[in-house]
Amino acid sequence: MDINLLHQILDIAFQKQVSDIHFEVDNPPFFRGKGQLIRAKMPKLTPADTELIAGEVLGQNSRRLSTDLKEADASYALASGGRFRVSIFRQKGHYGIVMRVIPPHIGTFQELNIPSVLAEIAEAPNGLILVTGPTGNGKSTTLAAMLRYLNENHSYNIITIEDPIEFIFTSEKSCVIQREVGIDTESFSLALKSALRMDPDVIMVGEMRDMETIDACIKAAETGHLVFSTLHTNGAVSTISRLIGHFPPESQEIIRQRLADILVATVSLRLIKDKTGENILPVVEIMRATTTIQACIRDGRLDEIEKHIENGASQYQMQTLDMHLLELYKQDRISIEDAKRMTHSMDFERKVMFESD
What we know:
The protein is α/β, with parallel strands linked by helices. The protein has helices at 3-16, 47-60, 109-112, 117-122, 139-153, 188-195, 211-222, 236-245, 252-262, 291-299, 305-311, 313-316, 321-330, 336-342, 348-356; strands at 20-23, 30-33, 36-39, 71-77, 83-91, 94-102, 127-132, 157-162, 175-180, 202-205, 226-231, 263-273, 280-288.
């Protein structure tokens, strides 16, 4: 493996629109395409190969590969314009690398097949908007689409704090400032404190990883800013529980009050294959913080939230995961088998039968 061969592999991955490339010792490179891992017809990688890749990635980020490095996140760019989000890690004493392809184009809501109500949600004057879901299910892409909408339609000062920077924005109506943890700032929480002195209208925090960052995001929303961030949670209820659970028990009641006051919406994403198996579709849960849902958060009645999402579907354009799965099934875009595999609800099949009557 040399740098030229690495770049050839990455160029191919970029052109073929795969989502990830895996480099691990004793395996050839793997590509993830349409949800499946595909083994490249190449020799197995050696420890020297993966060390070279890790060193090249870190070198582009003005960092050095040291013997005590156990994991690191970084970005990597090709001269041809391809960009990647990179995770470097150690396994069995050797380096491994997973490179996520960052699409060159920031999609619109329509292009991404995500509900247009996200534009209305992004129009909130202030508060906290959370985009959630498992790794690799479209959080960053959806968040970028919302920021694109604001950038094209509003004269805002938008500040992003990311680890690493993924989508590159060009300022249009808005001024967009992008800061990367480890290069432009020491941490999310320090960058958030600094952002409040930079005349922001909108702040995007790549991920809320700890109590300090969560608290700083809530404070920024409380002081009249619109804050976007992500969490690795599966839905509205688990998102709210996770946020509250980061705080000690004696603080959780006041955190519920604060969260109820500033939460605008949660948008939770999963990806599913269409019936052809050739395309991937997003399945989206949307919860908007109505007065009823705010009361549930304040009182800790989180188990009632899904029912209120269903009840507010027509008036507030909210939807549960099951509601969107059912809609995609009725449109003949997904199979019933794939839908049933994704949902955890025992009632889903009954809902399908009821809709079919």
